[in-house]
Amino acid sequence: MAHLESRKHISPDSGFPITIHPHFNAKIKEHIPPEAIRSEITPSKDRASFADPEKKALFATGAKRTDLTESIGTILENIQLSQLTPQQLDELALLVSERGVVFFRNQDLTTAGQEALFEHYGTLDRHPAQKTQRHVIIKGSTEDHREIASYTPWPSGDFHADTSFELNPPSYSLLRMEEHPPVGGDTAWVSQYGLYDALSEHMQRFVDGLHAVHTSRLQYDTILDLWGVGPNRPPIDTHHPAVRTHPVTGLKALNVNPGFVTGFAELKKRESDKLLDFFDLHLHSADDHAVRWKWDVGNVALWDNRATVHRVIPGSYEAPRRGIRTTVFGEKPYFDPKSESRDGRARRLKAEAAAAAANDNDKVGVADVPTKIAPGSESGDGRTDATVEIVKEADVPA
What we know:
This protein folds into two domains: 20-339, 4-Layer Sandwich (Double-stranded beta-helix), CATH 3.60.130.10; 369-398, no CATH class. By secondary structure, it is α+β, with helices and mostly antiparallel strands. The protein has helices spanning 26-29, 56-59, 86-99, 111-118, 145-148, 192-197, 201-208, 217-227, 269-284, 342-363, and strands at residues 64-67, 74-77, 101-104, 136-139, 170-179, 187-191, 211-215, 237-241, 243-245, 252-254, 261-264, 290-293, 300-304, 308-312, 322-329. It has ten helices and 15 strands.
């Protein structure tokens, strides 16, 4: 990012930019986007909604599943995405919705095959910087993003969910790696289910009622400043629930990311800034809800933007890094107050199972225990002096 305009306007006193993204930069000031802001759409029902919860068809392929962490990330081996049936693709979407991101090695997909496969999940999205192609070329980052923060307010190397500022942000994304250095250029994902779970109950209730302000303005200016081309559409600000309900799993997920969220609609500026600072710390300390993937050529990652955030890990590698990313439009984010957190659901199911087990045990009461009549006594003739000895058998369940 050496060509950022703000690097050319440095104060001789402070050594810092006179202003970040100066609007005397003609590239920003005079750009007229050729397209209008997108209108809201109602996408087709999520393909994961049609899946068998047990995913029998997907694993009938002989696929081997390995969960990388408790919270997020799964590898599927012995499987080719290009060979999956529509039913298997639906079940894969359900697995992705549950696990956040699923990885594959040694895939034979081509770019055309990737685009065709991903159309199964909906209408292909087009990034604001794209012109006509149906995919985005993803490269690595060898920049010092800590230093770049002095010159641009857009945290381009930080965690984000793909174009979360859209009225209909992407649901699923797929990245297939075509070129990659032997070391460096990893990608990290963090579970937004897990980030919500890690909040205290009081904070959860507070955040449940907020709307996060997602904006493309910072990215818009930086794309113009840095690349000198595009974007295709004017900048947009959207207010999405700070906690969203996943339409497939029904779980609550935090819907805040430092890449595109600049505040909270219901809060005053200072309150909003402090909460953003907290979520920045919360996200970057969430090792127990994170997974980091070391790429190789032919690797594929398929993730759910509604349940995760991700970022490329900067490095100093010199070998090329090139990936092909496809995304599809999702539903407009919403919050259902009746939805539950992932941990909350686990606790509820555990309590229900314990209650069911206790109920089964209660049915094996004294009335159901085999009885033996003491020698010389009688039973059932109505005599009050009848003596009945109840003998609990040793093999009766407790």
